[in-house]
Amino acid sequence: MGRRPVSNNLGRKDGPKTVIGNIFLSVLASILLSAPSSEAQQANRIPRIGVLQSGSVGSSASRLAALRAGLVELGYLEGQNFVIDYRYAEGKTDQFAALASELVALKPDVLVTSGSPAVVALMKITDKIPIVMAAIGDAVGNRFINSLAKPGGNVTGLSFLDPDLSTKRLELLKEAIPQLKQIAVLRHVTSGKQSLAATLTASRPLKVQLHVLEIQSVNEFDAAFSAAKKNAAEGINVLASPILFAYRRDLVNLSAIYRLPGMYENKEFVEIGGLMSYGPNLDELYRRSATYVDKILKGAKAADLPVEQPTKFELVINLKTAKQIGLTIPPNLLARADKVIR
Asked: Does residue 338 carry a pLDDT above 90?
């Protein structure tokens, strides 16, 4: 027999399949080595902000513009180094749970909202993702935080004592219309329980009788105003509520139809025809909430960020509305107003 040809792979047992396998492993190793690590991926991830609003796109526009402006002031550019996901309850309290779940499922780095119903909905879904309250009445009393100095948990932001403001609003309405004896108080059932108690207490030294009207939906607005008139109400005090704020135009229109001069929580009511308002500037609170978002995105924990309280409250009077219903606002009250709409 002739001699076998000498193999070029002397001493190796790898055949074609083994060679192909080695090539595959080499390519895979190269891909894995060139792929960014999980830490690098996390570092390159654009921060995501979830925003839950009680009202509609339109009714929330100025506040959200203020939030975005605050972020821009801090060096953020939307679409480049942050994105925002919005959800709007459209004034429907039964939508909060589902909308909160949707936002949390998007895995945002921080959540921003205002109003007790929205905060409650988010807190029920997550105790991990930081929640920034852009504007909330009495966060301690509502048990959203442990204290202003040390919130604890995953909630922080800006809060004010709305019961105190409610007392002041009633006093200002009485000062504007000294002859008032009967006043309707409108409250949404999801907000203002403490404010109502404070308002009732404040009514005694002012010697005015209050007629409390509690509603659950916008469909009850007309019936509430009708009941106020039947009770001989001469004015209406609308307690602070994110739901009522969302439907502020309807409330102001009904105040005009029933000729009930109204006191409201914020200037937005007065700018569309309401008589008076006393409260914090919501746009400014939303702009300020951007600083909390910034700190959290940079690694701060919500539990360690003290809750701020606004120090300035605006008195706004619509003199044009007063003239239309035959009211003369006392000059000394006009002089104290931060803004008079003529």
From this structure: yes
